[in-house]
Each structure stands twice: as C-alpha cells, then as structure tokens.
Amino acid sequence: MKKGFTFVEIMVVVGIMALLVGISIPNLLRSRLVANEQSAVSNIQTISIAAQTYLSVDNNLPTTLAQLYGERYIDVTLGCAAPPCIKNGYKYYMGGTGLDTDFFVYTIPQTPAVTGVRSFCSDSDGRVRVSTSGATPANRAACFAWTAL
Asked: Does the domain spanning 7-148 belong to CATH 3.30.540?
C-alpha cells in the first residue's frame, strides 16, 4: 500500500490556500492605508505643536519644515531640507510667511488610494482638519475650510 497524497487532494489544499490569501490581502492593504492615515494625523499634530513651540522661542512661526528640524522639534524625516518630506506614505509641506494669519502645514497621500485616501492640514490654531477627497490646500483659508477632526 502506497502512502501519500493524491494530486486531487493537493490541488484542493492549494485552492483553499489561494482563497484565504485572496480574502486576506485586501484586508491587509486596507489596514496599512488606515495606519498610514492615523500616522499622518499624528505627524500633523506633532508639526503643529512644534510650530507653536518655535513661535514661543522665536516670536514667529516657521516657514519650512527644515527650520523645525534645525531646532530639533521634529525628526529629520519630517524636517527634510527639500520638500516634500515623505513619511509613512504621506508627503508633508508647510506654507506661510511666519505670521499666524497665513501659517499652515498639510499632508497628502504619496500614492492616492494606495498609501492613503484623505489629506490633512492644520493652521496656527493647531486643529487638524481633513479633506476626504485627498485635495491639496492652496493656502491657510483653504485648510481652514476643511472639516475639523
């Protein structure tokens, strides 16, 4: 008597494994996208707090993310010298002239619908706002018009 598996039994096992992989991969990708978005919100909050700290020391708001890194308020990934600064699937930018009336920071997905869907921004009031369409704010007023989290 021969011991072992038949070709049909092996194919059934392979088919079941393929089905399980087909079900789990979209869920894993969705989990990664959600994690990237949560990280983006946290990073925008960190940058906003760092900007307020910078304001308390220098009496004006920063105009680049590199200024915040130069003072060691944020890490080198967020405070890169040449925007966009990319971290966890999102691109980070800062706008304004150093006055609280035009300061804003925002982040957009590096690859829309893959690394993230929503965009986030914050202005000098420190509230994080969201655009569900993944839009890019042209200025502080556009950021302020987004929905606050």
From this structure: yes
- How far is the C-alpha of 56 from the C-alpha of 131, rounded, in Å? 29
C-alpha distances in Å from residue 85, one per residue of 5, 7, 22, 58, 93: 54, 53, 34, 23, 7
* pLDDT tens by residue, 12-60: 999 999 988 888 888 888 899 999 999 999 999 999 999 999 999 999 9
Contact 69, 59 (CB under 8 A): no
- C-alpha dihedral (110, 53, 64, 111), degrees to nearest 10: 0
Its pTM stands at 0.84
Q: Match 């009336």 to its residue by tokens.
A: 101
Which of these, 146, 76, 72, lies nearest to 107 by C-alpha position? 146
130 φ, ψ to 5°?
-130, 145
Length of the chain (residues): 149
Torsions phi, psi for 77 (to 5 deg): -65, -45
| 59 phi and psi angles, rounded to 5 deg | 65, 15
pLDDT digits (tens, 9 = 90+) for 98-129: 888 889 999 999 999 999 999 999 998 899 99
